[in-house]
Every structure is written in C-alpha cells, then in structure tokens.
Amino acid sequence: MSRRLRRVTRYVDALLRDRRPPRGAQDPDDLQALAAAVDLSSTRPQAGMPDPRFVERLEARLREHAGGDVRMERRVTRRGLLQAGGLAAAAAAAGVVVDRAVEHGGPSSTPDTLAVNGGDWHPVVAADALPAGGMVRFSTGKVEGVVVNRGGGEFLALSAVCTHLGCILQLNAAESRLDCPCHRAAFGPGGDVLYHEQPTALRPLPRIPARVRDGQVEVNVV
Amino acid sequence: MDVTEPSPRPLRLGVVDGMAPPDWEAVYRDNIASIYRLMYSKVGNQPDAEDLTSQVFLGALPHLRPGASGGEVHRYLLATARTVLANHWRRHLGVQLTTLDEEVAAADADAEPTGEEPASRRVQRVRRVLGALPANYRTILELRFLSGCSLRESAARMGISVGNAKVVQYRALRRAAELGQETGS
C-alpha cells in the first residue's frame, strides 16, 4: 500500500507541475485513480492549449520533413523519422512480417515478401480496369502499395515505400515506374531498382501477396 | 491512371494516385490544437502531450492522400493518435490494448467536433464527480488541482499531517475514479 501510495503521489506531483510523470508499470488497481488525476489535471483552466513555441517548432520539423533533399540529412531526427516510416516500422505497425529471402549481408536482388500476419484479402481494382503495363496505388493507412498489371493475366502487388529511407513512392505512370520523392531513386513495375544515387545498393520493393478473385485484384494486408 | 470505379465491396482499399501530398500546412493549421488538446486530455502534462502530438503529425504526414477531405484527414490523424497513444501507455504504464481501445474511442468522441471546445464535457463530468465526493476528498482535490496548493499547503489548510494528506489524496482519486465509472464518465 505505501509503495502504491508513493507512486500515485509522485505521479500526481508531476502532473501538477506539468512535468512528465515517472515511467514504469503501475498497479492495475491504481490505473483508474491515475486516469482521474489526469482528468483533473487536464481540466485546469490554463491546461490543454499548445504552447505557441511548440507549435512553431513542430511546424518547422514538418516543413523540414516535407522539404527537399538539401536539408534532409542535416538532422539525425530527420533520418530517424524517415526510418520510422520505413519498411520495418511500417511492416511492424501493420502486423506484417518481412519475410527475407536472404537473411544475412547487404541488399539482395531477390525481392522480400510482405508475408501477412493476421491479414485479409482486400480488393483494390477490377482486373479489367487496369491495362497491361498499368499501375495503380493503394493505401490502407498502414500499408502503402501498388498493383501492377504485368500482362498475360499476371498481377503483382508491391510495397510503395522506398527501401532506402522509407519515403512513400510516387507513381510515374508516364515512365511506368515509381519515383522516390526524397532522394533520386526509381523502381520498375517489377519492384526492381532502376537507379539510385546511394553508395550501397538498394533492395528491390517487397512484394505483397496478390490474386485475382471474381474479376477483382485483391491484396493480402491488414 | 485510367481506373474505373470498381463494384462496391466491403473493405475496399482506397485507391490513390501518384500526385503530390495535400497541403500539409493547412492540415497542420486546422488540426494542431485539437490533436494537442486530445493528447493533453489523455496524459495530463505538457511534455508528453507535445511528444505525442509530434509523433501523430510526423507519422501521419507521409500517408495523407491527395484530395482527402478535412474530415478524412482528421479521422486519419485520430487513428494515428490512437496508435501513438496505445504505444505510449503500453510502454510507460503497462496498460493493455483492450483497455486503451475503449479509452481512445471515448477520446475520439471528445475530439470529433472540431469547432467545439472538447474539454467542456470533461469539465462538467469532473465537476459532477467532485460534487459527489465526501467533503474531505473533495477538498483535497480542489486544493491540489484547482487551487494549485502543494501537499504541504493542502495539509495545513485541512489541519492534517502531510502523510495523511497523501493518503486522503490517494483515496479521493480512487473514489473519484469509481464515481466516474458509476456515472458513465
């Protein structure tokens, strides 16, 4: 009891000073009490409005995020951010397992497969609506992908996340390729790397399980 | 890309084109206050609210689809906030996801009316709970949270020891939580 009392007291003290509360698992019986403290804390008259300096700082970070290559490598946070949006993080967030064909060493020319963990088949586009050689982007909010008609009734689904730093690729229909808006790199309709300017090779785009069912191209994602 | 609208089926994925992302500055301007308030209402302190708000915008920005409506963008930000908050609580409090889902669903409801002050309903609920507490419980919470008194000052005003004030505060919070649940929060 005294330990729980101390923990809750420290938690409340931190809230009332508008500081970060101590970390660590709390007794399950006290969680609701802590939630009540948060409720009380957040209804104080001065609470809940963002500090204008924070708003400006975050806006500057977002501007940097949306900006061009020049500023991209300046800050570690930028790199971390992009990696956080990258394949591994995206796959983890989506409950998808990256099934690597090659477990060791550097990039391979063999594409990974985004094997689905708890996923389901979702229709993206009618098979006859996508001409041979055509590509269409899709998004689940967690998985960014592209469906490609390879011709001869073969449809392919690929991740639309650059294997360099995790930028979302942009469809370049005219050139039948996917361009990375962050650094100069492009991927072909088979997921292969067309070109890049990185010192080390990039992996091809991972494949997402796809099939045609009832005239619909379906992909297996969460 | 010439893509016809396929026949309606459940859970169809959103087809997006390869155009530039939407105007993120407008998205930011329209949503920063409500997302921050939502986060603050769930964590109750500025540093965590700022961290989590940053994670929401930095995480959501690359995934915003061109042409998405304001409502769609807001819902996507809320969905991102749900994930960010769930991760935060699981990491720092050991709270299970199932609890969080309900919690954040309520938060979504709070935050949904973008033009409305989302705290107003919470303030009313807190006032109701405070009003239903035994006098000494209500007093310590009012002194601490509304008057900004330290534990020592609160104890002095209540004529009790600091140690007792800690116990009364703890029990008051537990009782407030029970009342909050009884009144349907």
Summarize the structure.
Chain A is of the alpha+beta class. Chain A is 28% helix and 27% strand.
What does this structure look like?
Chain A is α+β, with helices and mostly antiparallel strands and 222 residues long. Chain A has 6 helices and 13 strands. Chain A has a 4-stranded antiparallel sheet, with no helix packed on it. A 4-stranded antiparallel sheet of chain A has the order 7-8-9-10, with no helix packed on it. The model of chain A is unreliable at 68-108 (pLDDT under 50). The radius of gyration of chain B is 21 Å and the shape is elongated. Chain B has 8 helices and 1 strand, in the order βαααααααα. Mean pLDDT of chain B is 76; it is low at 1-13, 17-21, 97-103 and 110-117. With 185 residues, chain B is an all-alpha fold. In chain B, helix 1 packs across helix 4, helix 3 (70-93) packs antiparallel against helix 4 (97-111) and helix 7 (151-158) packs across helix 8 (162-182). The N and C termini of chain B lie far apart (49 Å). The chains are: A alpha+beta (222), B mainly alpha (185). Chains A and B meet through helix 1, helix 2, helix 3, strand 3 and strand 4 of A and strand 1, helix 1, helix 2, helix 3 and helix 5 of B. Strand 4 (135-139) of chain A pairs antiparallel with strand 1 (14-16) of chain B.
Pattern of helices and strands of chain B: EHHHHHHHH
Assign an overall shape of chain A.
elongated
Structural class of chain A: alpha+beta
Mean pLDDT across every amino acid position of chain B: 76
Overall 3D geometry of chain B?
A: elongated
Sheet having the most strands of chain B:
none
Q: What is the element layout, followed by pairings?
A:
The complex is a heterodimer of chains A (222) and B (185).
Chain A: H1 2-16, H2 31-42, H3 52-66, H4 69-72, H5 76-84, H6 87-93, E1 96-99, E2 113-116, E3 120-126, E4 135-139, E5 144-151, E6 154-159, E7 170-172, E8 177-179, E9 185-187, E10 193-196, E11 207-208, E12 210-213, E13 216-221
Antiparallel strand pairs in A: 1-2, 3-13, 4-5, 5-6, 6-11, 7-8, 8-9, 9-10, 12-13
Helix pairs in contact in A: 1-2
Chain B: E1 14-16, H1 24-43, H2 46-60, H3 70-93, H4 97-111, H5 119-132, H6 135-146, H7 151-158, H8 162-182
